[in-house]
Amino acid sequence: MICTKPIIPIPEHWQHRYRILRAILYAAVILFVIIFALRAFFPTLIFSFNFKTPSSSKNKLLNPRSPDTTPRTNGKIEAGGTLVTDIGVIGDLSQATASVTLEKKSAIPDTLAFSLRRSYRSFFLPTGSSVTSFPKESLYRIDAIYYALHNGTLYPFVSDNAYLSRYPDNFASPADKDFLAQYPVSEEWIGFRVGSVVSFADGVFLIASDTEMRPVGSADIFLALGYRFEDVRPASEEELGIYKRGKIFLLGANHPDGTLLFDRDTATYYLVDGGFKRPLLNAQYRDFILQQQTPISVSSQASGQHADCTLLPGLFGQTFACTTPLDALSAQSGSDFEISISQGNTDIDINALQISFSTEKSTKNMLRLLSQIKQRILTRFGYGNQ
Amino acid sequence: MQTLDQYFTHHLERMKQNGFLAVCYALLLEALIIGYLGFMALFTIEMLLPTFVTARFSLTKFFFLLFLFSFVLTALGRYLDMSFEWKITKKNPLLWLGFLWTLCILLLSLYKFPPAIILIIILAFFLIGYLFWKILFGFDKDLL
To answer: pTM of the predicted model, to two decimals?
Structure first.
């Protein structure tokens, strides 16, 4: 019926025009299919933050703040101030578009600048004091169990595996049962070194603290965060039983404390710790961690590169937008973007901020999506990895 | 108001006489057939990969548009005195293709349900379908 003869009789004098209109209809259908395929294979990723509903789950831009880390979730920026926020994105991206909508009563700034940096969020952390020694601990091995002595109490390690993720074997002094009898033994267990990557069943978990482990959202997220599957340490149910299960680790999250970063430009190792990246100067400690885990590779040079543009007012004056190419920001430097909105001469009140990333139209990106589709179909029917 | 009505009636009649509405009808019918086939394709993809289509394109709005234009087509068909005779027989391959598609969609949506429940749901689905079929197309003309 389609593509052959007309469905109903068409008057003779309309035949020619009918054929043209029919061709236009089919061209429109083909165009729609092409546009849909392009949108499916090379999506535009949109992230926004509505400052009037800062706690909404629809807000995808992370942690809006000032450069000194004061939260800016109300959207107000003082004259000369800057709004900084982050987002994690997978893929080869070609350009970013920023759109800032001001409140109706907000003053209009003379300049509004948009700037992007790319690396990992943990590498954007301020540099803290250097780590110059192994964490100090009194360690003992009694009857094939490792213990740490804190404040007059012996804390047992949950397994040899957990102990060896924290300290070399020779750090523990052998002790006998008499020694054990001198101190009370805690019911709290010591687990893996914070920052370790462990696996159990089909899941991969990051040890986020001494009491919490967080499952990694997907294999893509795991790889995008700079981890390697070769470094995942298999763990047993008993070993992981001492942790409570935390929130799923998603793209854009800070690496947990204890993560080792390696700046390939300056050959410096950093340890993520308490909101800082601390240069790891102790060779023994560094080599010990390196034996267990490949560091997350970062580049101070690449993370210093910016993609900038000046936001210009749209038709209605309250919305400012601009687009900048991302050629200068290497995809190898990390999966996180640090977004800065700087403004000029007056206090402003932002209603909403939206950042759109366009995906590079490349074979690599298309193959990545096809691979994800295959994986999702397999997972849906119980044959893939979660 | 009456003048406006007369104006539209006059123009519609003219468009009917010169064949323009017949062209519109043919094109709309063809667009709707393509639209419904496209909807089936997108719906199938959505069943296989949940949110893959709906994250990019609203299937609800698309279906609403198809539904709306189906009414327009029906109204136009009545105005042009055009009607389709439903020739759905057991030998029609389209019937069997539709049946197979429905079955596949059902199986996909019921994947991981207990087998006995799948059987009950499919049986109930087809029984309800048969009932509607009888109500809509299979009524006994002698009763009228």
So the answer is: 0.71
